[in-house]
Design goal:
The complex is a heterodimer of chains A (322) and B (292).
Chain A (H helix, E strand, L loop, with lengths): L5 E12 L2 E13 L4 E5 L6 H8 L7 E10 L2 E2 L5 H7 L4 E4 L3 H4 L6 H13 L3 H14 L5 H5 L8 H13 L5 E5 L7 H18 L2 E6 L2 H7 L2 E6 L2 E7 H6 L4 H8 L39 H5 L5 E4 L2 E3 L7
Parallel strand pairs in A: 3-8, 3-9, 6-7, 7-8
Antiparallel strand pairs in A: 1-2, 1-4, 4-5, 9-10, 10-12, 11-12
Chain B lengths: L15 E5 L6 H8 L11 E2 L2 E2 L5 H8 L2 E4 L3 H4 L6 H11 L6 H11 L16 H13 L5 E5 L7 H18 L2 E6 L2 H7 L2 E6 L2 E7 H6 L4 H9 L39 H5 L5 E4 L2 E3 L6
Parallel strand pairs in B: 1-6, 1-7, 4-5, 5-6
Antiparallel strand pairs in B: 2-3, 7-8, 8-10, 9-10
Helix pairs in contact in B: 4-5, 4-6, 6-7
Classes of the chains: A alpha/beta (322), B alpha/beta (292).
């Protein structure tokens, strides 16, 4: 059994706000192996972005990691100094976000920006960095790399900007890429191109990818494993096929059934009643129990522990026994 | 820039017409033109036989009651300083229909599944889904017959989207409404539409019954679009037609067929002449030299 590249254990993150303490992550745990695409999926407020930001320790100032371990290979990242984390970010672990206009500086050419990143992280002279930049652009299949380097972000389409971001993130040859909704801001045909390329790179570079998305379709087409999050917990996790074809947690089931598909055409969609819970005054017991169609007495009192069903699946639900 | 360039189609009573296409194709502009929120430069918009573009201000105001719109982002389309009550009342007040106003407001809220207690809240106190319900209640206030829905669920989570789609279907059944449902999300469009139109760079390239177009797409762009949509079923075996190249700018569209630079089936004629919409099967129209 190979040891995981990344292992998150019992991660708890709180945020201090005027209304009270938001318990955003309430014991998140999962593992990612080398070269594996792990999809972290869930709806607004489930904590998937905070989980990603916690890994590279970039959570907002009012956030506190109060519990847990984040093991990258054998080292606990929570023990590292800020200086060490800065070398890690954009080094062994890179992250890309949804909106390229936020990540790219509009007053510099994309060439200048990627060259900066390479020069700093790989400790090379600018001339050498510029050459590596061309290679990085070729990796993400950007047409005419030398010409593209001289362009400003606004001169590129959304899809091309996102490729630049990916090129920057991969320029240091990281072991893991964290991608937070990387295709949400591009059209579906461009999304198909980007995901195809990302999968090719994953394969050729043995790159592990933590993909954060709300789109189950993307999960089905790209991920090896998936973790479903709800209100700061991973409620179900396992090999992608197993979770999508045979969901065990009522929330996972509800989520999959609510997606419009050819079979639902012109019919009413089954819905998950209610709304996401207040994370300041979290529900007692299982966070999903107020909305669950199968709630039992124990669900109101006791938070379900994560149970391993077999080698490929875990679920946190009182309905599911070992 | 020709955002919408020579588009023709029709929507029947009680029908849901899905309009799909990617950013820059002109679908949002088209939706707004129908209501004259954007003034078209040329053409006709026939509502029940009357050309809306020929109406004067007073006549337009009267007819506008029948044609309403719901936008994508409720937080930007609802005035943050108005309570739900005032927001829903606004169209009624604007058209002088203030008799039994209080009762009418509650009726409308009930229609969209919201209780009395919501009347006094403000948009920032509501969730995305709740705000969208308010936007829908506003659109229904004047008893319209036709509603343009511009990406009504794109900003919502999957579980909230399901609730709103169900609501839209219920309302359509109950009130006999016609919808122009604009969306880039093909799964949503196929779920709710009777007929569909596909737009690319300002042109409608294919229209037909939903079932027809989805199962037997004629235009290469429609094929590529359909095959690009990720489906949540890992067992689904599909031939992915991944398009090459970028979407060209609508300011400088390519000569001939606008899709020709990216088309896998491109022929010489495609680069020279623009294909016209032709009926290829019953009710199934396509603008493509492969089929004309």
């Amino acid at each position: 059994m190979t040891s995981p590249l990344l292992s998150v254990e019992d991660l708890r993150v709180h945020f201090d706000t005027y209304e009270g303490v938001v318990k955003a992550l309430d014991g998140v745990g999962f593992e990612i192996l080398d070269g594996e695409m792990f999809g972290l999926v869930g709806e607004t407020g489930c904590g998937k972005t905070i989980t990603a930001l916690s890994i590279i320790r970039l959570i907002p100032e009012n956030g506190r990691i109060i519990e847990g371990k984040i093991l990258f290979r054998t080292e606990n990242l929570l023990d590292r100094t800020e200086e060490e984390m800065r070398r890690l970010r954009g080094g062994k672990i890179s992250m890309i976000f949804q909106d390229p206009t936020v990540s790219l500086n509009p007053v510099f050419t994309v060439g200048q920006q990627i060259t900066d990143v390479i020069a700093v992280h790989q400790h090379v002279e600018r001339k050498e960095a510029a050459e590596r930049a061309v290679e990085a652009f070729k990796l993400v299949a950007l047409a005419d790399p030398e010409k593209t380097l001289k362009l400003y972000p606004h001169e590129l389409s959304g899809g091309m900007q996102q490729r630049v971001i990916i090129a920057m993130a991969l320029s240091s040859n990281p072991d893991m890429l964290i991608a937070d909704e990387p295709t949400s801001s591009v059209d579906v045909t461009i999304q198909a191109q980007l995901l195809k390329r990302l999968l090719e790179i994953k394969s050729s570079e043995n790159l592990a990818i933590l993909l954060i998305t709300h789109n189950m379709g993307i999960v089905a087409e790209t991920c090896d494993k998936v973790g479903v999050m709800y209100a700061g917990n991973v409620v179900e996790m396992g090999a992608m096929r197993g979770v999508l074809k045979n969901p065990l947690h009522p929330y996972t089931k509800g989520l999959l059934e609510a997606i419009p598909k050819p079979q639902t055409r012109a019919k009413r969609l089954p819905i998950v009643k209610g709304t996401i819970p207040d994370l300041i005054n979290r529900p007692r017991g299982c966070a999903f129990h107020p909305r669950c169609p199968y709630t039992m007495e124990i669900c109101r009192d006791e938070k379900p522990a994560t149970v391993e069903i077999d080698q490929d699946k875990c679920v946190a639900c009182h309905l599911v026994k070992r | 820039m020709r955002a919408v360039d020579g588009v023709s189609f029709s929507i029947g009573e009680g029908e849901v017409f899905g309009l799909v296409g990617e950013s820059g194709c002109g679908k949002t502009t088209l939706g707004r033109c129908i209501l004259r929120l954007i003034e078209p430069d040329a053409g006709r918009i026939l509502y029940d036989g009357t050309d809306l573009l020929k109406l004067n201000k007073r006549e337009l105001k009267k007819t506008r009651q029948h044609l309403q719109i719901v936008f994508q982002n409720p937080l930007s389309s609802l005035d943050a300083r108005m309570s739900v009550r005032r927001l829903v009342a606004e169209p009624l007040v604007a058209h002088g229909q203030t008799q039994q106003l209080g009762r009418r407001i509650l009726q409308l809220l009930e229609l969209v599944g919201m209780g009395e207690e919501f009347a006094w809240r403000y948009p920032h106190e509501l969730s995305g889904g709740q705000n969208q319900r308010v936007a829908i209640a506003r659109a229904l206030a004047l008893d319209p017959r036709f509603v343009v829905l511009d990406e009504p669920t794109s900003a919502l989570d999957v579980s909230v989207q399901a609730q709103i789609l169900n609501l839209l279907q219920d309302l359509q059944d109950r009130l006999g409404l016609s919808y122009l449902f604009i969306s880039h999300d093909l799964n949503v469009v196929q779920h709710i539409s009777n007929r569909v139109g596909v737009m690319y760079l300002g042109k409608v390239v294919e229209t037909g019954d939903l079932h027809e177009v989805w199962e037997k797409p004629l235009h290469p762009y429609t094929e590529a679009l359909l095959s690009s949509v990720p489906m949540p079923d890992p067992d689904l075996k599909r031939e992915r037609k991944v398009l090459s190249g970028e979407v060209p700018s609508p300011v400088n569209p390519p000569p001939g067929c606008r899709f020709s630079p990216r088309c896998a089936c491109v022929m010489d004629i495609c680069k020279r002449s623009e294909p016209q919409m032709t009926e290829v099967a019953t009710n199934h129209y396509v603008a493509c030299h492969l089929h004309t």
